[in-house]
User: What shape does this take?
Amino acid sequence: MQVMKTKFLLLAPIAALSLSACSLTGVRHEISEYVLTHEKVDMTGKSEFRILQLTDLHLGDKCNVDLQLKFTDLTVNEASADMIIVTGDLFTFASKTTALKLFDYLDSKEVPWTVTFGNHDEQCYFSVDWLTDTLNNYGSYCVFKDIQNDDVHGNANFAINLTKDGSVFEQIIVMDSNRYYFGSYFGYDFFKPDQIEWYQRLMEYNKTQNGGSPIKSTMWYHIPLPEIDDAYEYGVANDCIEYGEKREKTCPPEYNSGFFEVIKQEASTRAMFFGHDHINDFRVTYQGVTFCYGIKGNDQVYYDDDMMGGQVISIHDDHSLTYQQYLHTYAEVK
Assistant: This one.
């Protein structure tokens, strides 16, 4: 079965709703405060580190959360990953109880996990401050940091070191692509200049820690950059779409803040992973950077029956990346 295919902007006048990316106070923090480590984000003795990307779960109080988590469990168990990253739209109209069910589920897998936020994650019966406070202080497997009084837009901008033999091997950069924009147009938001500056500061910090050379990295966020259309057109024209299909119009922000040009100049981030468009799952490398959609995590909001599950991105000991998709149907749920 196929259901609604049109992208939508869901806004609701509920008391807890907050549509701003964050309330800035202008407090500058050392970039080192945003760099996290975890003893299990380590590939010592391994030839690869497997990251499972889940995206667009849209769990809410009106859905059967237990059923949805059983469906997610099919992918999580089959993937047998070293880490789980959820790239936004975890929730829509969820209570604290629903949010904690998801976090408890992820933590029960006993592998490091983290999230970034999508445009719907503030449309819930809790404040974004509660959400980030909860994640900041969660269990031993949650690797997340939001500095709420900083001078950087968004509620999830941090980096996680992937170590090997006691040194930083790669970096997993998590960023918040924000929610909605109410300026010259009404639509999806974009990475702000202070976030781009934050990324540049992170790149300079990494060079000081790595003998002057960039540290290889991947980036994880929710709303694709505006260059997603150029990347797709390039892939079609040159017959180099590496995987997947474009089944709906892409929905990046209308405004281009120039982040992609900075990413290319810094020569660190060679692949970016995002969600947002539920029935797009293509991957293409454009101007040296791989653009990669995740796989819609379940049947909430809109979906295609043959495009639900998740994907594993494997980081190998030669810094190459490989990909494996895991697709499931609800007929498999016991």
Notes: Confidence is low (pLDDT under 50) at residues 1-6, 11-23. DSSP finds six helices and 14 strands in the chain. The radius of gyration is 18 Å. Residues 193-209 form the longest helix (17 residues).
